[in-house]
TrEMBL record:
The keyword Signal does not apply. It is a multi-pass membrane protein. SUPFAM superfamilies: Respiratory nitrate reductase 1 gamma chain (SSF103501). It is found in: Cell membrane. PANTHER family: NITRATE REDUCTASE PRIVATE CHAPERONE, REDOX ENZYME MATURATION PROTEIN REMP FAMILY (PTHR30598), RESPIRATORY NITRATE REDUCTASE 1 GAMMA CHAIN (PTHR30598:SF3). The chain crosses the membrane at residues 6-25, 46-65, 85-106, 126-145, 173-197. Residues 4-222 form the NarG-like domain. Keywords: Cell membrane, Electron transport, Heme, Iron, Membrane, Metal-binding, Nitrate assimilation, Oxidoreductase, Transmembrane, Transmembrane helix, Transport. This is Nitrate reductase. InterPro entries: Heme-iron_electron_transfer, NarG-like_domain, NarG-like_sf, Nitrate_red_gam. NCBIfam families: narI.
Amino acid sequence: MTSQFLWVIFPYICIAVFIVGHIFRYKSDQFGWTAKSSEFIEKKQLMIGSLLFHIGIFPVILGHVAGLGIPKEWTRAMGISDHMYHIGAVWGGGFFGVMTLAGMIILTSRRFTKKNVRKLSSRSDLIVNTFLLFIVFIGVYSSLITNTMTPGFDYRDTISVWFRSLLLFQPEAAYMASVPIAFKLHVVTGFLIFAMWPFTRLVHVWSVPLNYVGRSYILYRKHQPTKQSPR
């Protein structure tokens, strides 16, 4: 029963909350669809942490999409051997994972230890930062440590197949039975952050100012006061 809840019911609940929560948040709180900037309080750690996090997170996301969504047979057909894929996933993904983790450590430390930044932070900000830090940490640990210490385990034969079965609405919880605990924690907390997403500042991710690309330039003209003629 626990297995069915964790690997079938719980993921669908999180996905439903993610979708419905975003719709509700957008309709009820459009003006709060943003993140409070703390740059004017402390800039150096924010710049370093944010740069490391964002440089690392995009390759990490792409790696997750490829690893979970692309079957082994497809990569083999493209001439990529399982060993070659494994080396790229572990060490390439591990490199960008460590970079993301370093950024999250700096950003989380800044939010908790800088007095004025913490005052500006809501409770949900602190929870989200802590959760993201744990998710990234356990992901890096799973990739670099668990993969090395668990010979014979291949997440593409277990987690990936399970994940695709969820997307096809034919969930197979049995695929997760032999998955190491670190990977399971990474999966569960990953889905949990998706459920929390609509109710936190993470919604600002979707506020990409695409209209700025085609927007006309703003022209500033110096105002010359008109001289009044003497009477």
